[in-house]
Amino acid sequence: MAISDTSSITGQNAASAVGGNSSTSNVDSEQRFLKLLVTQLNNQDPLNPMQNAELTSQLAQMSTVSGIEKLNSTLSGLVNQTSSNQLLQATSLIGYNVLSPGDSLTTKEPEAGKEPASQAFAVELPGTASDVDIKIVDSTGKVVRTINAGSMTEGVNAVTWDGKDDTGAVVPAGAYRFTVDASNSGTTVKATALTFSQVAAVKQGAAGVTLELMTGSNISLSDVRLFL
């Protein structure tokens, strides 16, 4: 009686058969693999039996497949745990003012007989700038104040505006923005405008944890330079 040769059922094919259904559990996968392996051993050609090295190789492949599945499951759990921790940490920022990229400033009408409240913001530079000019612009695009900040170092540099125009008069309450021109020995230095805004809410989305600011804009945790 002829014995059919099933040596074509290699470890790779067995592993593929086990891993083909992503919904199959690790235990089921191992049982299927062992069943295929036993079938292969029972139907092997007596004149050309499976070598120890080949058997060991197939078992190693099964172990690798099982290990990868467990590793993926572990990594998925770690990612979910990290996201949850970030969300919990971010909620502690609600109600705080954070310094993040932005160029908007808002002034309020000062109380009678008092000076207007100073506006705090910042400029972030990738390197030293020997000459930094900051222009405060109103809603019509008119420059109401030019601040010659002089030199600034690499990193975040704090700036304050007293709420007055170039003539020393208090500007009307409302929305303003500022622009930054920075250079070092005639070479332009790219500057990032930073402003303070209160955190209103925290959201978890596909892009990760985001902070919703009172201004209506959304920023990521990595955008926060400072909070107070």
Automatic annotation (TrEMBL):
Residues annotated as domain FlgD/Vpr Ig-like: 119-185
Ranges annotated as spanning the membrane: none
Pfam families found in the cross-reference section: FlgD, FlgD_ig, FLgD_tudor
Domain of life: Bacteria
Keywords: Bacterial flagellum biogenesis, Cell projection, Cilium, Flagellum
Alphabetized InterPro entries for the sequence: FlgD, FlgD/Vpr_Ig-like, FLgD_Tudor
Keyword Cytoplasm listed: no
Renumbered residue ranges of the record's region Disordered: 1-26
Gene Ontology biological process: bacterial-type flagellum organization
Signal sequence segment: none
Residue ranges annotated for the FlgD Tudor-like domain, each copy included: 85-225
Gene3D superfamilies: 2.30.30.910, 2.60.40.4070
The keyword Oxidoreductase belongs to this UniProt entry's keyword annotation: no
Protein family (similarity comment): Belongs to the FlgD family.
Physiological role: Required for flagellar hook formation. May act as a scaffolding protein.
Protein's UniProt name: Basal-body rod modification protein FlgD
Organism, scientific name: Variovorax guangxiensis
